[in-house]
């Protein structure tokens, strides 16, 4: 191979390498350019949060439905699948006939006993749940309570009182090791008071 041919060959190989690297660079740049832009993803996120905020406010169902429909038709670009599924679920729930029974409309809001009130300051210590639990244990106003007659006893109470009286009398007369027999007799007596006959 002559020196001139060698230079031409090296030149040709170098051009091919540069061409190949340029092609790889263009493909990589095209892949980045074809992905979702930060601005588009931001706009989709903001619109999702707007629709979600409408769900938390006392807004008409039609306004909520329209917001979720718009988001599904124009703002799903670059969004995660769980957001798209949530929006589709909300849209279908809002599209149902309002005369159909709904879990939210039919069930009264229940407060869990022992649940603390919502905090108002992030730096304040948590409120005491003791007062809240006592207040929630009281029956709500307007509920009917069944008065218990003063002479009535709970089922099996008379029998259990008899077992207790026997145990007390047995313990008064027992000596050191014999008190275990009183305890065993009491343990056998009480369950019999509550068995169905």
Structural class: mainly alpha
The count of DSSP E runs of length 2 or more, i.e. the number of strands, is: 0
Query: What is the overall silhouette?
Result: elongated
What are the secondary-structure elements, in order, as H or E?
Answer: HHHHHHHH
Report Rg. 39 Å
Poorly predicted parts: none
Q: Helices and strands in order, then pairings?
A:
Elements: H1 3-34, H2 38-56, H3 61-74, H4 81-95, H5 103-106, H6 129-137, H7 157-173, H8 179-193
Helix pairs in contact: 2-3, 3-4, 7-8
Summarize the structure.
The chain has 197 residues and is mostly helical. It has helices at residues 3-34, 38-56, 61-74, 81-95, 103-106, 129-137, 157-173, 179-193. Among the domains are: 1-35; 38-99, no CATH class; 157-193.
Structure in words:
With 197 residues, this protein is mostly helical. Among the domains are: 1-35; 38-99, no CATH class; 157-193. The protein has helices at 3-34, 38-56, 61-74, 81-95, 103-106, 129-137, 157-173, 179-193. Helix 2 packs antiparallel against helix 3 (61-74). It is elongated, with a radius of gyration of 39 Å. The N and C termini lie far apart (114 Å).
Keywords:
197 residues; 0% strand
């Amino acid at each position: 191979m002559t020196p001139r041919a060698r230079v031409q060959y090296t030149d040709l190989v170098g051009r091919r390498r540069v061409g190949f690297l340029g092609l790889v660079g263009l493909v990589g740049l095209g892949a980045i350019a074809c992905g979702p832009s930060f601005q588009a993803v931001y706009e989709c996120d903001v619109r999702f949060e707007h629709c979600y905020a409408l769900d938390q406010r006392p807004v008409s169902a039609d306004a909520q439905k329209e917001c979720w429909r718009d988001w599904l038709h124009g703002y799903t670009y670059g969004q995660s699948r769980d957001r798209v599924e949530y929006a589709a679920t909300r849209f279908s729930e809002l599209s149902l006939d309002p005369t159909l029974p709904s879990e939210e409309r039919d069930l009264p809001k229940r407060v869990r006993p022992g649940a603390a009130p919502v905090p108002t300051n992030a730096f304040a210590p948590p409120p005491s749940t003791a007062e809240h639990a006592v207040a929630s244990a009281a029956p709500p106003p307007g509920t009917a309570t069944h008065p218990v007659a003063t002479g009535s006893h709970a089922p099996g109470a008379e029998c259990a009182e008899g077992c207790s009286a026997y145990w007390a009398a047995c313990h008064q007369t027992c000596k050191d090791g014999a008190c275990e027999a009183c305890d065993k007799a009491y343990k056998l007596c009480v369950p019999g008071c509550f068995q169905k006959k």
